Amino acid sequence: MKILVSISRILVGILFIISGFIKLNDPLGFSYKLQEYFSADVLNMPFFEPYALIISVFVVVFEVVLGVFLIIGYKPKFTVWSLLAMIVFFTFLTFYSAYFDKVRDCGCFGDALKLTPWESFTKDVVLLVLVLILFFGKKHIKPVFGKLQTTVFALLSFILSLWFAYHVLMHLPLIDFRAYKIGNNITEGMSIPEDAPKPIIEYSWKFNINGEEKLITTNGSYPSVDGDFVGVETKVIEEGYQPPVVDFSIESEEENLTEYFLNQENLIVVVSYSLEKIEQDGASKLKALQDKAIENGYFIIGLTASGETAKQNINKTYGLDFAWYLCDEKAIKTVVRSNPGILELDNGTIMQKVHWNDIEDLKLPKVERKAKFKKSSEVIAYFVDGEASTKEVVEALDSAKIESINVIKDSIQLKDFNNQNNTFYTGIIEIILKPEN
Question: How far apart are CA 78 and CA 66, in angstroms?
Fold first, then answer.
């Protein structure tokens, strides 16, 4: 029993430290996963969602500390009881997710290692067995060092874990396991190789044949059946190849501009998954960033999931002139763990990425501006009485209230306007309203 406890102690301790450290490296990412668990579709505990980050930090720090406690033999009874409570909860959670197909990735190892729901559950069952061995053999768990040294090591593990969590929250993860790390090309990350495995999907066709419902299963082809079609259900038997980058886009209200912007050089992208929740200290730094970027020859755009009103408000409040484009919120949260965060892209390759706390560290040497303006489709700017507007607002105007419409298509005027405002417009429509009596 003593040998079994020793082996279990080492395995459980190391696994908890590794798993905890990976999540401790990115507590914000783990908090997003907790929000997914707390949502109405999973555990239906939305009241916990505002506290997801606090819970995330507590859980990952506790996970690392318990692993250290177990290996050095600090307070064995407390440690083993805590490990048992934690692994029982995680086993329930992963079983619930797998059985009801609620969360496709448990986040056990962050973005470093993706496990399927059933793989996560199997891992937790194995851990549960090991922890039960420790529970029934806890008398064999002895301190590795003397009492003072063991206490010092335990205290240091707690302090260092808390400091590390704070550090990565105030900057960015020390190790970036995501597809958007510096040096990666977003375009390549979205591509699917020709020889990539295709998903295997089972189709269950329901027919009414002579008043009796019958189910026919195929791999996708429509069955040749003499009867009335009732419905069809699909089930994924085997997942196909999933590219590292999914749901990333750069869109205007009118069109998808992802390919266009990913072919630009010296492009600064300000990323904010929610302009309503943007950190004010970070937003206040964007004006200086914008001015420096434009002065040194860079183009700058914003990327957000927020609506038009929020975009206009943020630009007006902080004196910003660059245009904001749309992207899925979940994808933006994956791009950079900061709101706002800053990227430098060069033909789709991420050259730099910083937290708003580190905007001053962004290197922006002078470059030659080489914008490749779109020719295949139009990007129109709308103005009403000199104020920036949208296509929807302009189309909703009462024609009786319009005094004049000025359409600018001249390439020289457009080039001057785009250079002055750091934009990419291929046309400008100016609406002047009649003065109110």
Answer: 9
